[in-house]
Structures are given as structure tokens and as C-alpha cells.
Amino acid sequence: EVDVVIIGAGPAGCSAACILAEAGHRVLIVERESFPRYKVGESMIPFTYFPLKRLGLIDKMKSSHFMRKHSVQFVMPSGKASQPFYFSTRYDADVSQTWQVLRSEFDQMMLNHALEKGAQVWQQREVVDMLREDDGRVCGLRVRDPDGVHTEVSATMTIDASGKEAFSVARNRWRERDPHLNKVAVWTYYKDAKRDPGIDEGATTVAYVPDKGWFWFIPQHDGMTSVGIVAEASYLTRDGVKQPEAIFKREIAQNKWIESYLSEGKPVAPYRATSEY
Q: Rounded to whole angstroms, how far apart are CA atoms 123 and 155?
């Protein structure tokens, strides 16, 4: 029995847990996986500074080895790059630099921070159902451990921070497909790809391909780069190819900047794909 039970120990769940536990509430996070675990979505925007400050994480971020991000640039398919957009030309000093994070490490940092604030976490626990009062109000969760044992968690408030999995959305059949959201992402990681010098080393690059698509190029620490393409599914599978690796390698040639910068490195991770990106 707790005050708040939270589905998911990602950034949203841990943020909620930090704030609520710091206020004296009994908080339990239920996480399906075991940390550290892989996630994509690694490039922060400048105004991430304010929630990080509210959570008390700025000092930890500043002392981390995460790549500093000062700018973003855009590249045409021909390889012609825009001038970098430096955040310092528009924003105050506090938000003029942000970070490119490795999610397994960043999410672990956030989880540890929530634990320091007094939250509890159950890892490798799967939420199987929501508990309800007679009037239909959600009053907790039914959780299954790795041995198949079920536990009922009673809570005044239940927060679904399960992200793209959207546990409560799927369970309540609230999801409605957006007919205009048909983009697919295909991505991997390169070691020692080319980078720009100085403060441009950590810049996010958005490199366009000819038909309503674009690459992301996100430099990370230890010489790693997250790189992926986002485009309409019909474009990426236009020649009948559906294997993520084959799609990715074909598309590299569609942007001369991407082709050049990746040519100096080598792929070192599986090729992944997801829809509705």
C-alpha cells in the first residue's frame, strides 16, 4: 500500500517519483526491465535545463561524461550544410548548452536519483492489470514478478509513465491511429565517425534525404555516434527491401554529408527499426 504507484522507470516515471517522494509521499515505481537497459532518444533540447534543475540533477549532468551540445545544423541532400544554430545566440547562458546522452546511463542516473529522494523501485515486474473501485476509479495495480507471483499494489494515485508502450492506453482502447503519422525510423551506432572540431563536435545534425525524410546524427561520448533515418514507410520500402540494415545502407548514399561523415567510422551495433516515430 503506497500513496503513488508509477508504471515505468524512464525519465517521466523517475521525474514524477523524485518530485512526489521529495514532498514526503510513499512512491513505488514498477519497471518491467532490469536497469541499465537500452533506449533510443538521446539528444536533449536546451530547455531541458529547467526540469533537470527542478529535479536537482544539474550538478550531476555537469560532472558527467555526456557530450556537450551547443548547436544544431541542417544539411541538404547535396551535402551543403547550414550555419550551425548556436543556442547562445538566442538563449540565456543557463540553457545555451545541453547534452547528448547515452540513455542506459542517463536513465540509471535518474533512477538512482529517485531512490535517493526516497522512492522505491521494483524491477523486472510486469504490470498485468489495473485495480479499480466499484465506480471504475483506478486504485492501484496488479503486478507479476519473474516467478509468476502476483502482487496487488493499492495506491491513492496511479501514474502511467510507460511511454510508447502506453499500458493504460492499450488496456482502455484509447489509442486512435493518426492517418498522417506513417513515419518509420531505422538506426544504428557508429564508432569513430567524422566530427566537426571545437564546440561543434557535439552538434546535432539533421540531414535531409530527397523524399520527406531525414537522418539524425548525434555524437556521443567515447567516440560513438547515434545515426538513423526517419521517413515515410512507403519511401523506405520503395524497392521491396524491408530489412533495417539494407534500408539504412541504401539511404546513406541519399545524403552526401552523411555518406562522408560515416565513411570514416564503422557500424558497431544492431540495426533497429520502429514505426510511428
A: 18
Rg (CA), the chain: 21
For 129, 188, 246, 269, 275, the CA distances from 272, given in Å and listed in that order, are: 29, 6, 11, 9, 11
| 10-residue mean pLDDT series, the chain (277 residues) | 98 98 98 97 96 97 97 97 96 94 98 98 97 96 98 98 92 86 93 96 96 94 97 91 95 97 98 86
Q: Among 248, 200, 227, which Cα is nearest to 70's?
A: 200
CA-to-CA separations, 160 to 14, 55, 171, 189, in angstroms, rounded: 12, 19, 11, 30
Looking up cell 545515426, which residue turns up?
227
Phi-psi domain of 240 (left: phi exceeds 0; alpha: psi -120 through 50; beta: other): left
Q: What is the dihedral of CA 12, 17, 23, 24, to 10 degrees?
A: 170
Coil/strand/helix, residue 6: strand
Q: Strands (DSSP E) along 18-137, which ranges? A: 27-30, 67-69, 71-75, 85-86, 98-100, 120-122, 126-132
> How much of the chain is helix, strand and coil, in % rounded to 5?
30, 30, 40
Q: Where are the alpha helices (DSSP H) in 118-212?
A: 167-171
CA distance 187 to 229: 6
